[in-house]
């Protein structure tokens, strides 16, 4: 049996979890960023043979990946646009750490990551590390509440530096940003992106993959993009 057939059979035998939020108008967005619009262009009712909509979407709407160019200036060795991001950062072994007991005032420290490693397994070079805060429970239309986009937990800059030292390639969370809402000057963004580690935000269903899984991420290939909306799947 070929390697492709073996991989296909293995993935088919595993449970697949969708980690992506549904794109819909009025969904939460970063307060300073553009909103998402889904506009009808053509339909059967107007006599067309096909149904078609136009999407108006920001690079950081919904479940998305940050390219290092989001925070890192041109000329820096880690600077890469979305279309330049290595595809190897889009798949691999993932470890999901559960911090769902956190409030918006909390931030993960290096000691807490090290304690998780002692109690579970070590983070290895090339891993994808995801933080479950359970914040997707606040993902509701902006007309209902804007709590999701106004307060959330995150990780400290020192925790981000520890992950860089471990050699991870991508870090994600189920909040609107990896830096908590109380973090001044986005230290985790600078530590991760400044060392070539991509960031994934607005994930969901991380409660179903706590521990080890295999994750596949498919961000749009945006020319000179600072980031891109994406679909994320986990196999457990």
What would CATH call the class?
Answer: Alpha Beta
The CA-CA distance between the termini, in Å, is 23 Å
Q: What oligomeric assembly is this protein in?
A: single chain
Residue share in helices?
A: 10-25%
The helix-and-strand class reads: alpha/beta
What is the domain tally? 1
Mean pLDDT, to the nearest integer, reads 97
CATH topology: Glucose Oxidase, domain 1
Query: The biggest beta sheet, please?
Result: 7 strands, mixed, barrel
- Kindly state the number of beta strands: 12
Percent of sequence in beta strands: 25-35%
Number of helices: 4
* CATH architecture assignment: 3-Layer(bba) Sandwich
Q: Spans with pLDDT under 50 lasting ≥5 residues?
A: none
Q: Strands across the major sheet, in which order?
A: 4-10-9-7-5-11-12
Commentary on this structure:
- This protein is an alpha/beta fold and 236 residues long.
- It has a single domain, classed as 3-Layer(bba) Sandwich (Glucose Oxidase, domain 1), CATH 3.50.30.
- Helix content is 16%, strand content 25%.
- It has four helices and twelve strands; from the N terminus they run αββββββαββαβαβββ.
- The protein has a seven-stranded mixed beta barrel. The chain has a two-stranded antiparallel sheet with strand order 2-3. It has a two-stranded parallel sheet with strand order 6-8.
- The protein is globular and about 65 Å long.
- The two termini are 23 Å apart.
- The mean pLDDT is 97.
What key phrases describe this protein's structure?
single chain, 236 residues, Glucose Oxidase, domain 1
Please write out the topology.
Blueprint: H1 3-12, E1 16-18, E2 37-42, E3 52-56, E4 64-66, E5 91-98, E6 107-108, H2 110-119, E7 128-132, E8 154-155, H3 157-166, E9 170-173, H4 187-193, E10 198-201, E11 211-219, E12 227-235
Parallel strand pairs: 5-7, 6-8, 7-9, 9-10
Antiparallel strand pairs: 1-12, 2-3, 4-10, 4-12, 5-11, 11-12
Helix pairs in contact: 3-4
